[in-house]
Amino acid sequence: TGMANFAVQYNFQSISIALLIMSSQECTLDDTDCKSGEQAAWVHGSSSAVIFVGAIIGQLSMGYLGDIIGRNQALVFTLLIATVTAFLSAVAPTDDASTVYSTIIAMRFFLGVGLGGIFPLSATKSSEDQGNSIGQVNPVGAAW
Fold it and tell me: What is the C-alpha to C-alpha distance for residues 32 and 135, in angstroms, rounded to an integer?
């Protein structure tokens, strides 16, 4: 669960670096602005915000899914969503800049759903796995 939480934070923050690198190849403004790392406002704002909207939806829905199908299966499902959508955003179509960024933004929404689901599932699983043989939960383990 610690590695999953690291991956969540990495994916939340990586778009800033990716947009800076991509600006020289896929430009939504004039060439001068793109060479300095600038993009159109809709690219920068949407790509940063949409993952958090997806994370809220993931937090609300994946915890419930964990209650229905089990925490382990739901955690595997959320990690699968995150992996597949991260891969799909990496192999986004190489058409015009608007198509590339629109695809990345859509994939980041679903990436957010997967990453948001990791929070409630990993916290609950960590808490439940800290119990001893008579069913008592270690309070220190439950806090992590």
Answer: 64
Q: Which residues contact 131 (CB under 8 A, 6 or more apart)?
A: 137, 138
49 vs 53: CA distance, rounded Å: 7
- Cβ count within 10 A of residue 84: 14
Q: What's the gap between Cα 99 and its chain centre?
A: 20
Instruction: Fill in the amino acid letter for 44.
Output: H
In 3D space, the residue among 83, 64, 84 whose CA is nearest the CA of residue 74 turns out to be 64
Record the tokens describing residue 96, joined without a space.
Answer: 């015009």
H or E segment to which residue 114 belongs:
helix 97-129
Tokens of residue 57, six digits: 């939806």
| Residue corresponding to tokens 């916290």 | 123
Largest CA distance in the chain: 67
Interatomic CA distance for residues 142 and 75, integer angstroms: 18
pLDDT tens digits, 78-125: 989 988 988 888 887 777 777 888 888 888 899 889 888 888 888 887
